[in-house]
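Quick note —
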Amino acid sequence: MLQPHTLYIEDSPQQVWVMFNGETVADSKRLKLLHETWHLPVYYFPEEDVCMDLLEETDHTTYCPFKGDAAYRSVRGGDRGVENAVSSYPESIDCTPQLASYAAFY
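Predicted structure written out below.
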């Protein structure tokens, strides 16, 4: 029997940072930790704690019936980049309002 799909979002007391090509892309103590059925936990960073000038919006989108429409950004650092490395839910749906203005890194 399959278990129902669940999402659980909690505040994380950890300080976590994201480095790319020697540059700090994100650094926060105000993280959300998303637990989702069939997925490993994912840290979501407040966008205020993300160096947005190292990110470039892309046209890539995905849809999750539990979180809504995801928008993606690529990371650029020096002469290197990773396409669609950052996702966010700019218009979160009722079950995930805590994710609005937060971003996750792959």
